[in-house]
Design a protein that fits this description.
Length: about 290
């Protein structure tokens, strides 16, 4: 049985994100994604005013007069939340864990999808695929996804994005909108990323916490790697150490962003203790403008 505390969190997230979708994201999700998928409908004879780029040259050559292809917009999309639930998500130094931020963000994306009559699926992973929730519609289905994000107890210790992307390409036969939500503390996954990027509309979402890139000067701090199970005692009063720590973090993020950009992927960055709304609104508007 799901604990009462988890059910209260689910209800709070439902109220918060449902209102947010109606007040903030109304129409923006639709403008960002709808119409990206087009299905072939028919070939008909060319009439004046038709776009010449739609001419079907094979049929035209065979029949001897111009014909054009007609397409119709796919009315229903599948939105997949591909979510990293590894132990590093249980970190948070600004009164919010990364896992809690992920649950609220995932709920917002899911409610935006079902408001536009789209399906929502979820694949939760660590160093293995932990749970797959098949695509479905409706508020009850979204609540199930939120419960899994909050309640599922991961068995794995590490993060294997490569395996998760491979599993995704196996279970999804049709093109989908995929939000890959992670802190990306994982071994190289570039090959699987390239394959998934060609099959789906893939959107990386980087989840960060300020203390993962900037340490406060508070003397000795014990750092613990939840995935490796390793501990390290560091002296944060050393300015040189703090600056080196910050540089390494900045370099890692720059390399991650550069890798995504080379593949034509548009990354969203969200941070614990801060609203993810501006980042999401900016992304939706940018996507809408590109269309």
């Amino acid at each position: 049985m799901i604990p009462t505390e988890i059910l209260r969190k689910v209800r709070r997230i439902q109220i918060l994100t449902s209102a947010m979708v109606q007040d903030v994201f109304a129409g923006q999700y639709h403008s960002a994604f709808k119409g990206l998928g087009m299905e072939f409908e028919e070939v008909r004879e060319y009439t004046p005013g038709d776009d010449v780029r739609a001419i079907d040259w094979n049929v035209t050559a065979r029949v001897g007069r111009p014909f054009v292809k007609r397409f119709r917009e796919e009315r229903e999309l599948t939105v997949v939340l591909l979510v990293d639930i590894s132990p590093s998500q249980e970190f948070g130094a600004r009164q919010q864990l990364k896992s809690e931020l992920v649950a609220e963000l995932g709920a917002t994306l899911a409610f935006s999808a079902i408001t536009n009559n789209d399906k929502v699926a979820a694949l939760l992973f660590t160093d293995r695929v932990e749970r797959f929730v098949p695509a479905g519609k409706g508020a009850r289905h979204v609540l199930r996804v939120i419960r899994e994000l909050l309640y599922h107890q991961p068995q794995g210790r590490g993060t294997n994005i490569d395996d998760a992307l491979q599993q995704l390409t196996r279970v999804l036969t049709r093109r989908a909108v995929v939000f890959l939500i992670s802190d990306f503390q994982a071994p190289d996954f570039s090959r699987s990323l390239r394959i998934a990027r060609h099959r789906h509309d893939l959107i990386p979402v980087l989840v960060r916490d300020e203390r993962e890139s900037r340490l406060p000067p508070v003397r000795y701090v014990e750092l613990f790697d939840a995935e490796a199970g390793a501990q390290l005692l560091v002296d944060t009063s050393s300015r040189a150490f703090r600056e080196r720590f910050g540089r390494l973090s900045d370099q890692r993020q720059a390399a991650l962003l550069g890798g995504f950009r080379r593949l034509g992927l548009d990354m969203i960055t969200v941070e614990t203790g801060a609203s993810f709304v501006p980042a999401l609104v900016k992304f939706f508007r940018r996507r809408g403008a590109m269309r």
